[in-house]
Amino acid sequence: MDASAAVDWSAIDTVLLDMDGTLLDLRFDNWFWQELIPLRYARRHGIDPAAADRLLSPKFAAVTGTIDWYCIEHWTRELGLDIAAIKHEARGEVRFLPGAERFLAALAASGKRRVLVTNAHPQTLAIKDAQVALARHFDASYTAHPFDVPKENPAFWPQFRALEPFEPERTLFVDDNLAVLENARRFGIRWLRAVRRPDSGRPPQPTRDFVAVDRVEELI
User: Fold this and answer.
1) Ranges of H-type helices in 7-121
2) Residue-by-residue pLDDT tens, the chain, 220 positions
3) Cβ-based neighbour number of residue 106 at 10 Å
4) 9-25+96-219, superfamily in CATH?
5) How do the domains of the chain map onto residue ranges?
């Protein structure tokens, strides 16, 4: 990984960008899974919200870091809730992070290949794209689901590169998930940047030894 804080755009051909917590405010997802879904689960099963939290916490922990964590079908089966329908109802809360649209506009003028690569389920991507028109900013958009593993799994990057060829030494990848960034570093992607403020309503998160920005706008 390049250790300097600045991005040498002349050394970059491809820009890979995460969606939630990098371009879109993770405040939506945190609210959705930590507040709205426990409330709906409590109502569905006739229990109080505190009991719902106690039941849901181990379910969430059991699949953290796997593709099931991001899978709408998995959670619909597991919780007895129509997760896609609830996300569609709540779509008005989906928003860009501050400065993200300005960054994407500048990136469009740069001539670099722009690729969205997210762990989000295809239905989640479709719902959010319909709300904020995210895909129009990219040359290509991918979710991890066709690969059967999320970005934090070592099996992801070789499969992804076979479908979307890029030169790791000349690629910038921005994400808020440190496990994903660590995996990308092991794969050999040189230009890695972490996002310190994935949720606009929460304090900055630690980013260990990764070069970080509060928002992608700083990369312009």
Assistant:
1) 27-31, 37-45, 49-63, 72-79, 83-89, 100-108
2) 444 567 999 999 999 999 999 999 999 999 999 999 999 999 999 999 999 999 999 999 999 999 999 999 999 999 999 999 999 999 999 999 999 999 999 999 999 999 999 999 999 999 999 999 999 999 999 999 999 999 999 999 999 999 999 999 999 999 999 999 999 999 999 999 999 999 999 999 999 999 999 999 999 8
3) 13
4) HAD superfamily/HAD-like (3.40.50.1000)
5) 9-25+96-219, 28-92
Q: What share of the chain is helix, strand, coil (3-state, %, to 5)?
A: 50, 15, 35
What SS3 state is found at 209? coil
Q: How many CA atoms lie within 13 A of 153 on its CB side?
A: 19
Which residue has 């964590």 as its token pair? 69
The tokens for 58 are: 């181990």
